[in-house]
């Protein structure tokens, strides 16, 4: 009986205590007017109607509001016992009446007014008897809220950014992000980046990043967006472009982050060359459509897992909550709203636990009143704080758990990346495992999956023969309007990779260069850098500065800078063009060599004893070469009563004969005198007209070798020089251009050729660049067509520097009046360009290599360069063109022949006249008969002996005498040379008589034999 009574009393006491726990719990709320968090707060309360029921006591806060009442700050400071501080501030400002101090006074008063306004709202909450408060704060009010909550022991549950505080009455729903951010930075191996932050959300994350950067030698450039103007914001990206960096971290709240991303899009920085990490837990709450179009690299964090069925169910309920107008779409549930929903759920769970634990949380007296002096803390606030920190639930933001400081723990954050198909989870971070990458790649994938799901923009430029408009392009649309080398190449690459594309002509008509002042890229490179195009298929030169901001494939065409000039007129062949195979200096050396050899031959013949011959001995040897002894004996017998005459010594190689011998050898025709073996003298058979000295043979031999080489070289070059039409070019190389100023020269503006000369350190090219940049008028042209027209209209006074491939193409096009001179100034190549990090880079590169190996690229070049040429064969581009010989090529030879024949006739006429005059003078002189008779008798015996030796028959003296008679009878005979009778009119029988004089006999012998 007693035990039953005790149990009844205990139950009654418990019922009394339970009944003392309030059934309605007043929950305070501090939210900005018309905020997303307030709407979700209302939605969450509608879902938590269990006992104890949460009753909202909400005060709407205007975060940026200010009042003109300057005494408001004094009231707030009075509440906290800081009136002396306000007095000191007022006194300090009163001493200075300057504008600067007045402005500072206004700013300070406005800040204090906002604090007073916030504190008044908090006091209003306490006056309504709330047990806990849920709401948001900013940087300017967070410290004041911490002071109230700490002083009055009232818990403040907030979805706002986490802060470093020792106040245990602040329950922070948002997880800390600094460790996850550092893990992602380490994953991407960043060592240089820009950190853009807003001080509104605190500096906790920035401090953690800077501390880690100091430990690991990272180079971090921090930028505060609150102090940033439009110009400074632009300068940040200009500096990034200058340093070739594009790694940026943005740490801001959603509203400010959205405005920053809009500015980035306006600057065209939403492209692949930049990588952004958004230090925000609502990656899916951000509109990244433009960044997706620009294929920018964006990484962020996601707290709410929308793939969870429970989360999806609540999100659908939220979309239908309080939607009075079906035509107005409901905003999605942001991560801050999800945190607010979880905050209400945490408070509901905590009070339910307190009710089950029968803990008295009733308020007594003035405990918790902010207007009390001094403020009295609420004793039950500790119990509520403990109950809140002990909550363990699964909410919209994952696992919810707090540590002893009221901060989230044991949470997981998803790491997201913006892919071409949209945001995708690539990993996660938690306190135990840190960063874990979950990105998976299909084995054997070539990265082309999904290319067919979109149409890629292929930028190019109108440049013949790469891209040209068809003749009927007005009737065509899309890619069909264009034709050319790059048009077909783009089609081949797209076919190999497997994507659809659209050709787009670059708007400014430029290839791409960076402005030295604005540091912005123009042309096709700019469209790739700023995400306006996906691929560039054009004659775009691979250079270092371009490779730093975009990616190139392997070269699909090799080339170099060349010189284009107007084709000069063909030089008319000269009269003596047959002399062109050898230079003027060689001809002069040949003339001097000819004279020198002739003189040496003459001297050698004079000094050598083997070149002198006895004339009489030679004559007798010629008369009877087989009987030298008998001839000598007969002569000795017949000449016993006559004095012996010494033979006359002669030398065949006089100066004129030496010249004649050298000329005959040079002409490879020979002459009547030539070298013979000098040793024949020893056997007594020296031959007239033959060189018999060894020294003479040496001279003749080296001269023959010399003429062999000279004539062979001349003959080899003669055919080429006579059958090639040559053009007289004013310049032949870049050195020729640099040496002169008469011919102007320039390049394409905003192109790789201009950049080559600007950066070159070679003396010749530096000199050319100095001339080009200072030339007036400007030598730079906007388009290649303009440069070609300037060459054609300049009448040879302008040279255009351009790629060799384009030079060769234009040379094959009408009016065929340009030509390429000299070799290439450098070596480079054209490549297909893609933005940095594009998934198309590897497939496009493989396509170019495949087409190169299969000779597709060569076929395309032959098709558009030579098969469609308009200037003849492929060799017509050369400045030397082979053709048939014409009369003008060999006219000089005929002139020399005619001149030689005329000169011979003239010399013959002079000789005839001279001889006739000499003979006429001799005929006028009377010759005594006795002298003639004696002369004839004196030589009769000797002549007879000579004749007998010659004929082999013995003649009688009577015949000689009869000859003398006949001679005297022929008084009308003509006189001979040297006073001898010239018997040209005698009959043949008479001419062979031995009575003929020695000279006449020799003449007859020479002529008759």
Please tell me about this protein's structure.
With 1009 residues, the protein is of the alpha/beta class. It is 45% helix and 14% strand. The chain is built from 35 helices and 34 strands. An eight-stranded mixed β-sheet has the order 7-6-8-9-10-13-14-15, covered by helices on one side. Strands 2-1-3-4-5 form a five-stranded parallel β-sheet, with helices on both faces. The C terminus is likely disordered.
Task: Kindly report the spatial arrangement of strands forming the biggest sheet.
Answer: 7-6-8-9-10-13-14-15
Return the average pLDDT rounded to an integer. 75
> What's the story with the biggest beta sheet?
8 strands, mixed
User: For the terminal residues, how far apart are their CA atoms?
Assistant: 188 Å
> What fraction strand?
5-15%
Radius of gyration: 59 Å
Counting helices, strands and paired strands, the structural category is alpha/beta
Morphology: rod-shaped
Task: Give the % helix.
Answer: 40-55%
What topology does this entry show?
Layout: H1 2-20, E1 24-32, H2 36-47, E2 53-61, H3 71-79, H4 83-94, H5 99-127, E3 132-135, H6 142-152, E4 155-158, E5 170-172, H7 178-188, E6 192-197, H8 204-216, E7 219-224, H9 230-242, E8 247-251, H10 254-266, E9 275-278, H11 289-293, E10 297-302, H12 309-320, H13 335-356, H14 381-389, E11 393-395, E12 398-400, E13 412-419, E14 422-430, E15 434-437, E16 455-460, E17 468-469, E18 482-483, H15 485-497, E19 500-505, H16 523-529, E20 535-536, H17 544-547, E21 550-552, E22 557-559, E23 561-566, H18 584-607, E24 612-614, H19 615-623, H20 628-638, E25 649-651, H21 655-666, E26 674-675, E27 690-691, H22 694-722, E28 724-725, H23 734-739, E29 744-746, H24 752-759, H25 763-774, H26 784-793, E30 798-803, H27 804-811, E31 818-821, E32 828-830, E33 833-835, H28 841-853, H29 856-867, E34 881-882, H30 891-923, H31 929-938, H32 940-951, H33 957-969, H34 988-991, H35 998-1008
Parallel strand pairs: 1-2, 1-3, 3-4, 4-5, 6-7, 6-8, 8-9, 9-10, 16-19, 16-20, 26-27, 29-30
Antiparallel strand pairs: 10-13, 11-12, 13-14, 14-15, 17-18, 21-33, 22-32, 23-30, 23-31, 24-25, 28-34
């Amino acid at each position: 009986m007693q035990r039953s009574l005790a149990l009844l009393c205990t139950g009654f006491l418990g019922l009394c205590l339970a009944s003392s726990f309030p059934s309605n719990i007043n929950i305070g709320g501090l939210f900005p007017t018309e905020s997303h968090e307030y709407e979700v707060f209302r939605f969450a309360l509608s879902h938590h109607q269990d006992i104890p029921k949460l009753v909202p006591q909400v005060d709407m806060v205007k975060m940026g509001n200010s009042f003109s009442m300057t005494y408001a700050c004094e009231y707030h400071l009075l509440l906290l016992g800081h009136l002396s501080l306000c007095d000191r501030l007022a006194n300090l400002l009163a001493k200075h009446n300057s504008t600067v101090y007045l402005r500072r006074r206004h700013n300070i008063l406005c800040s204090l007014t906002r604090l007073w306004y916030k504190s008044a709202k908090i006091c209003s909450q306490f006056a309504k008897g709330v047990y806990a408060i849920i709401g948001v704060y900013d940087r300017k009010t967070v410290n004041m809220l911490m002071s109230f909550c700490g002083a009055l022991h009232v818990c403040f549950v907030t979805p706002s950014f986490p802060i470093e505080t020792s106040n245990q009455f602040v329950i922070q729903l948002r997880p800390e992000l600094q460790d996850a951010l550092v893990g992602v930075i380490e994953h991407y191996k960043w060592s240089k980046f820009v950190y853009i932050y807003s001080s509104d959300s605190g500096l906790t994350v920035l401090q953690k990043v800077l501390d880690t950067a100091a430990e690991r030698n990272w180079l971090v450039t921090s930028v505060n967006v609150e102090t940033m103007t439009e110009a400074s914001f632009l300068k940040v990206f200009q500096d990034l472009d200058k340093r070739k960096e594009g790694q940026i971290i943005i740490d801001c709240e959603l509203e400010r982050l959205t405005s920053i991303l809009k500015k980035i899009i306006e600057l065209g920085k939403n492209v692949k060359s930049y990588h952004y990490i958004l230090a925000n837990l609502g990656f899916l709450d951000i509109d990244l459509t433009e960044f997706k179009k620009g294929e920018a690299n964006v990484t962020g964090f996601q707290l709410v897992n929308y793939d969870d069925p429970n989360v999806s169910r609540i999100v659908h309920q939220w979309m239908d909550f309080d939607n009075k107008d079906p035509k107005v779409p409901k905003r999605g549930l942001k991560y801050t709203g999800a945190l607010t929903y979880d905050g209400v759920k945490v408070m509901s769970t905590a009070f339910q636990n307190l009710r089950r634990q029968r803990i008295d949380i009733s308020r007594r007296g003035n405990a918790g009143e902010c207007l009390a002096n001094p403020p009295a803390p609420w004793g039950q606030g500790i119990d509520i704080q403990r109950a809140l920190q002990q909550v363990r639930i699964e909410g919209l933001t994952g696992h919810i758990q707090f540590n002893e400081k009221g901060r989230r723990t044991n949470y997981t954050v998803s790491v997201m990346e913006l892919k071409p198909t949209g945001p995708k989870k690539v990993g996660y971070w938690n306190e135990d495992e840190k960063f874990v990458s979950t990105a998976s790649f299909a084995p054997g994938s070539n990265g082309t999956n999904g290319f067919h799901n979109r149409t890629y923009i292929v930028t190019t430029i109108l440049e013949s023969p790469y891209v040209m408009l068809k003749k009927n392009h007005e009737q065509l649309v899309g890619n069909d309007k264009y034709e050319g080398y790059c048009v077909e190449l783009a089609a081949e690459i797209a076919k190999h990779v497997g994507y659809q594309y659209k050709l787009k002509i670059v708007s400014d008509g430029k290839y791409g260069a960076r402005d030295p002042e604005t540091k912005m890229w123009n042309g096709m490179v700019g469209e790739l850098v700023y995400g306006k195009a996906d691929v560039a298929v054009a004659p775009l030169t691979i250079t270092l500065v371009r490779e730093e901001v975009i990616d190139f494939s392997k070269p699909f065409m090799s080339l170099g800078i060349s010189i284009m000039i107007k084709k000069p007129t063909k030089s008319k062949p000269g009269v003596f063009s047959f002399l062109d195979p050898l230079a003027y200096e060689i001809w002069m050396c040949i003339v001097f060599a000819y004279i020198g050899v002739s003189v040496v031959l003459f001297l050698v013949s004079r000094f050598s004893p083997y070149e002198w011959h006895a004339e009489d001995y030679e004559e007798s040897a010629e008369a009877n070469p087989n009987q030298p002894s008998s001839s000598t004996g007969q002569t000795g017998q017949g000449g016993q009563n006559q004095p012996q005459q010494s033979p006359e010594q002669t030398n065949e190689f006089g100066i004129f004969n030496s010249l004649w011998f050298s000329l005959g050898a040079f002409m490879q025709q020979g002459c009547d005198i030539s070298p013979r073996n000098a040793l024949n003298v020893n056997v007594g058979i020296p031959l007239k007209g033959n060189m018999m000295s060894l020294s003479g043979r040496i001279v003749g031999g080296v001269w023959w070798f010399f003429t062999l080489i000279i004539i062979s070289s001349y003959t080899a070059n003669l055919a080429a020089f006579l059958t090639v039409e040559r053009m007289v070019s004013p310049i032949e190389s870049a050195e020729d251009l640099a040496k002169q100023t008469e011919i102007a020269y320039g390049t394409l503006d905003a192109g790789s050729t201009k950049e080559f000369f600007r950066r070159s350190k070679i003396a010749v090219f530096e000199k050319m660049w100095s001339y080009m940049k200072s030339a007036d008028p400007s030598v730079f042209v906007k388009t290649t067509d303009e440069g070609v027209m300037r060459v054609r209209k300049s009448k040879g006074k302008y040279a255009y520097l351009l790629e060799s491939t384009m030079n060769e193409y234009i040379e094959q096009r009408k009016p065929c009046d340009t030509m390429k001179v000299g070799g290439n100034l450098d070596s480079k190549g054209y490549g297909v360009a893609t933005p940095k990090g594009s998934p198309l880079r590897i497939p496009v590169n493989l396509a170019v290599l495949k087409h190169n190996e299969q000779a597709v690229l060569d076929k395309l070049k032959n098709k558009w360069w030579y098969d469609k040429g308009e200037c003849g064969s492929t060799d017509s581009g050369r400045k030397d063109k082979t053709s048939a010989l014409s009369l003008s090529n060999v006219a000089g030879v005929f002139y020399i022949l005619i001149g030689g024949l005329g000169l011979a006739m003239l010399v013959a006429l002079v000789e005839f006249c001279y001889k006739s005059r000499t003979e006429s003078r001799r005929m006028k002189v009377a010759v005594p008969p006795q002298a003639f008779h004696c002369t004839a008798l004196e030589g009769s015996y000797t002549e007879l002996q000579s004749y007998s030796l010659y004929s082999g028959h013995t003649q009688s003296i009577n015949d000689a005498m009869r000859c003398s008679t006949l001679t005297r009878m022929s008084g009308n005979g003509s006189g001979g040379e040297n006073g001898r009778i010239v018997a040209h009119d005698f009959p043949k029988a008479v001419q062979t008589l031995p009575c003929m004089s020695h000279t006449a006999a020799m003449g007859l012998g020479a002529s008759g034999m």
